[in-house]
Amino acid sequence: MKFTLSWLREHLDTDADLDVIVETLTRIGLEVEGVHNPGDALKAFRVAEVLTAERHPQADKLQVLSVDAGDGALQVVCGAPNARAGLIGVFGPPGAYVPGLDVTLKVAAIRGVESNGMMCSTRELELGEDHDGIIELPADAPVGTPFPDYAGLNDAVIDISVTPNRQDCMGVRGIARDLAAAGLGTLKPLTVPRSPVRPEPVEGHLSTSVTPAERGASTSSARTDVVPVEAPDVRTDDPAGCPAFYAQNVSGVANGESPEWLRRRLTAIGQKPISALVDITNYVSIDLGRPLHVYDRATLSGGLVARKAEDGEQVLALNGKTYTLDATMTVIADDAQVHDIAGIMGGEHSGVSADTTDVLIECAYFDPDHIARTGQKLLLTSDARQRFERGVDPAFLDDGLAIATRLVLDLCGGTPSPVTRAGEPPLAPRVHAYDPAKAETLGGLAVPADRQRAILESLGFVVGDDWQVTVPTWRRDVDGAADLVEEVIRIEGIDKVAPVPLPRTPGVAKPTATPEQKLERRVRRAAAARGLDEAVTWSFLSEAQAAPFGGGAWSLANPISEDLKVMRPSLLPGLLSATARNLKRGVTAVRLFEVGRRYLAEAERPTVGVVLAGNRRERGWREGKGAGFDAYDAKAEALALLAAAGAPVDNLQVMGEAGDAWHPGQSGTLRLGSKTVLARFGMLHPSLLKAFDLDGAVAAVEVYLDALPARRASGFMRPAFAPPALQSVRRDFAFLVPAGVSADALVRAVRGADKAAIVAARVFDVFTGVGVEDGHASVAVEVTLQPIDKSFTDADLKALADKVVAAAAKQGASLRG
Amino acid sequence: MSEDLDTLRDHLLTAIPAAASPEALEALRVEALGKQGSVTQLLKTLGKMTPEQRQSDGPRINGLREAVADAIATRKASLDRAALDARLASETLDMTLPAEAPLAGTVHPVSQVMDELAEIFADLGFAVATGPEIETDWHNFTALNIPETHPARAMHDTFYLQQGLDAKAGGTFDERATFSLLRTHTSPVQIRTMLQQQPPIRIIAPGRTYRSDSDATHTPMFHQVEGLVIDKGITLGHLKWTLETFLKAFFERDDIVLRLRPSYFPFTEPSAEVDVGYTIEKGKRVIGGSGGGWMEVLGSGMVHPKVIAACGLDPEEWQGFAFGCGIDRLAMLKYGMDDLRPFFDGDIRWLKHYGFSALDVPTLSGGVGAGA
Predict the structure, then answer these.
(1) Are residues B54 and B181 in the same domain?
(2) In this structure, is residue B361 part of a structural domain?
(3) In chain B, how many domains are there?
(4) What DSSP string describes B275-319?
(5) Does residue A201 surpass a pLDDT of 80?
(6) Band of residue B216 on the pLDDT scale cut at 50, 70, 90
(7) CATH code: domain of residue A661
(8) Are B351 and A389 an interchain contact pair (Cβ–Cβ within 8 Å)?
(9) Model ipTM?
């Protein structure tokens, strides 16, 4: 919401300067987003007279002027065709910045003749489009005066952000009222013409604050030859959507350009002046927050009715678009067609034009919820909608209409009709019981009751002796005691609220993170400690990226793009995209992880994703050639993260079936039991990688934190430390193992050979090739034997070795000779 | 006899220290102390001596044996040492060659700041709460006093889910149960917490949030932290203290200055936006003081009575405050990133630059912030 300082002062009688006003606006909740003084940019420019104009000796199209800008004659070279002796224009001295040219003037020779500045055109000063010649000011313009002062450009434009609850501040008057309540002067009374009048022409001046004397004079001078104008034929058949439809006709108007003051005011706040009738509706809307609509009566057939649209009914709106309506929407229509999407946008057909002579001015009250729903459905927003859906003042229909009509008469002439009032605006008083103690018990600020009463009254509330508070009609947002506290606090000064410590919760401080959160933290820091970099990637991705991971269960109806369309079923696609970007940037080793959710049909699941790509080991003087990542690197990460998460890693089963996204021979799942999949790991499928524009092999892990068994709370005590009394013994076995028998199966069998004595078994060498039978591998296993009561004898060891060999034989493995 | 002894002594105690190698030394040892050695032979003569003779010669002969044995041991140590020195000298390597670089991973700034927040608020008695990111209309809007026609809904640029639209079309839409949108703020966690838990309540709820917005300063996904206190007798004064305490602890500065501005959120009344003062240091905005101006950091207010009632609590009995704050923005203000978009790119160079060591666990005793 933009307005100028002078505009504000039409409503607010104040001595406060701009800085105080700006500071106060923000302090009371009308946040100032910007202040701009258009005059500042043109400070250096002055009103100047061209004393003489002679042809440039070296150029036909240039003239050499002698210019007086108040300090005596200066020589200026000028190319404008209208430059001539006696012209009063706008002069820019050396040092002035010309915004339309983006240059700073300096003394320079132009074709050999020195020029000490510039006479400017409208476009050069960014005051308009005209560039046919230099600006010509009236002959009485005072030479030497700074141009912004002469042209009235020193009028700061203030831009405030109006929160959705404050419809009343979508009009300059509402802002003035708030400032007055905050102690910045007094709100000027709003003078409203009470009856249709035949006005005398008023010379280009604001007439919303016409004095009673003026009004009396107008009335007394009403001419007798006026043909009475019939009151408009309007009614509402949709009292829910349009409870009240007031209207007034004016006949015999001339819809020309608005007067200078009105055009300047609209232009200053970025509105384009169109024609007097259109400008008047915009002006009243911005000035008083009262939207209006003006119809060209020549285009209407029969009376106007506010009614529900018919399903499929169409209207061509003023923005040039055709809207298809449905039966929930309120429209204004005549016998022939729809002329207005009620309260949102008028129709093209009945809009006013330069030829308009007879108009109907609509001042209606539309139900905010109806307006909001219609606007949302049509995806159509407008200044009118913004005001109506926030709730305009239902008690301001008569006054708004009278002010608008008066402006029409003033600016366009014509003869007004009586007012037609169809329906009733919702005017039931809204009264809330208020306890002034609440300012302190809720707002934290003790404000004396008298002061609270004064604040509320200055905002238009009526406060009874019993603290029954009646809400002003323009404050639809105030709905209870808490709102009244807010009014008091914001005007008194929310900065005065003193901080009060929250009492400490009694008792021993308990951990405030849930077990799930602690788990995520551990896993995250474990991953970072292992050299992985944590990324945060989008929760959404393309359907194609989701497909190899089971597809997205949730898709956005209004995605930003097709690339961000479905909620991710896996963390890997996002990490793979990041990996590809990194490799393209020349990063040689990618170790990325993310802790986040995957979004399944039934729930959001906490997950860790890891992607390893590029070099696991860079080439080096000790290690020689570099090496890439393989599936065992992925397995190591999976187990490390699971261990950090507290999973029983020694009891996990390694199984296949990682899924379509994975290399079928170099991937697996880590399971607790045979069903619960805790993690997937391995190399990714080359065709998946291709879709991500990745060439080389990529290893990956996905750990499903939600699948982990909950850790049992066991207190702080650990079991007693009891190291074995006797030293363990190691024995090595080399087996010839047929293909298809997994190392895991062999080791499990070996471990199971004597559950008491064998405490560990691990593969320490795997070999295929020369000396090993085809279709077999040599697998060397180190077995740790732990004596309990007494040391092993040779016979004990022999017996144990036989058990190991026998157990391995059941898996098809034989001891290598 | 005594002359022989002196001669032998001179010979051995000169030769032994001069032995050039372990082998030469061993030869001398055999010569003196071996079975047939000269000193051994002398020792054997002791048995045949008269007592008087033994009394005079015994100590001299034994003394010679000891002196020779000591000399041999000393020389042996010396030769061993020289041999070791020589071997070590031959093993010299170029100590300037590079060692293997340690693998150093990083924690993302968003995670780090979330941990910092949890630590700061734990000290104030706030638990960490979570909720779904795929939400219902009711939790995200209606229960928060944002009815369907409320203009604030338009401000939220909500991502809607096809599943919700389908449910609407199919007549199975349940505002309270149909997951129909991506949460636009962390405020629905307020609702879920109040529905699940009896007051008093003190929680923060950090997490991902979504709005259909993408430009230089907005990303369609971002992170927020919500704070909620519901208790008896809670006022705007408690809110102000909590925010001040939090921001001072977060930026680890005493000169944090807050400015509350009245504002509007449908779910709080009164509502306030909170600005924090900054100063300009070396051309950069640094939080603290207010010489440079004000920066908006969070929105807050007293929980609206309608919200409390929507969660089944009596607003006459319980009141409290809530606030919401952008985590990404907090991270940027504290650690100096000036662009939001790289947060979600996964650029390893950026992660290495702005990320945190796994060991930088925020603690109150060690300071919640991690230095560069």
Answers:
(1) no
(2) no
(3) 2
(4) EEEEEEETTEEEESSSSSEEEEEEEEEEEPHHHHHHTT--TTT-E
(5) no
(6) confident
(7) 3.30.930.10
(8) no
(9) 0.90
